[in-house]
Amino acid sequence: MSRKLSFLVTLWWLILCGVLGVCMMLFANRESMVSEQENRMLSGMPSFSLESMKKGEISEQFESFLTDQFFLRSELVDRANALKHVFSSITVSELLEVEGQEVFVPEPSAQEQPEETVSEASTVAKEDQPTVEPNDTQTAQVVPSGDTASIWLNHKDGTRTALLTYDKKNLEKAAEVFNLYAALLPVGGKVHVLLAPRAQTANKLALHLDTESGWTSEAEAALQPLVSDNVVLYNAYDILQDHILNGEYLYFRTDHHWTARGAYLAADEMLKRMGHQTIPLSDYSTKTIDGFLGSIYLRERNAKLKDVVDQIEVFYPLLPTQSFVVVNAINRIPLPVIDETKNSYLVFLGGTAGPYRVVVGGYHTGRNMLMICDSFGNSIAPFLLPYYDNVYMVDFRDNYYSRERARVGVRDSVRILGISDIFIILSESDGIASPFVNLLMPLNIN
After folding, report:
1. DSSP letter string over 222-251?
2. Exposed end of the chain (fewer CB within 10 Å): N or C?
3. Nearest CA to 192 among 239, 160, 152, 154?
4. pTM (2 decimals)?
């Protein structure tokens, strides 16, 4: 009897494994793909060849495919993570302050690149660029007064806490870099600089309005005497403070970015100071995406953050708009402006891509702009379209920018593209004292 039972168990186990195997072969995605849930590339079905079999690579590649494309894998991963965090002592407030994991969008593959050849230009190989370590400007340091500038969180009891502190050396370096970019522009052109808080900083105010009264940034005042006359500084903390105190939803909770509404307020204030009559947000058609869990959630996928799940408000451009990856300042690869296939921050321009991007709005203003930005620029770019014919964008971080594909630096790009103004819109992670400003911006100017 026991032999018969063992045989039946073994038989049914083999049948189950066979069914799962057939499901994998029939229904699994055979192509490598980006997982928004895990923020990485999932392996696709390997291509079988005699060479790969000789090298012993095929078994490892096939194992990766089975692991990444397993039937109902996402659901199983979610349930496992939910169970793991049930008994965790960490609070939601503590979770909202952890580092976010930037969503990575791979560069278009070689098959997607234009076939046109380009003229030779001076290039800097990517392997020759300095290794960029993550910045640590998020931690406020106790430093002597007088030579520093801080971002302060003001408490209702009259005290305040330094959220970020920048020393004199890094303030001078940032001003020097901004001045270098300002010198590239034609007469009348200006560099517009806005350094935005991340959600981890903004929500220390936005989610604690019972104890906090506002915030103050000293950085812009400290930079002002150091920059050229054609560098205009905007204080994001002043621009956003009253709206946050009024309870407006300007920053995500589970993601480090600002919302499109927050991006609009920043763009609106900058444009008004430039003398433009701006377009009210109510003129834009919109839709809302529910159930968004962003970069902070992706860091550890803690199920507790599902209690503060976000929503994404999308505002559509007023006129038909096109977007492209730009290679060598000439060749173009189409990109979505609003990516309807995404239910994450990647809905804005499909995420970050490189080396350059351009958004074309068709307003015939006679002006073009270049935005030096990190991913905070993705949601603000469409709001700048009515004031420029072309909004060019570049993110110098290694995951997105390649001098081999760009071919030319910013100096030549400004000339070739007919740039009137440069906007520098960066989050605090890539702002003052960061490798982005101190290393990457000077490196890629020529």
Report:
1. HHGGGS-TTEEEE-HHHHHHHHHHTT---B
2. N
3. 239
4. 0.76
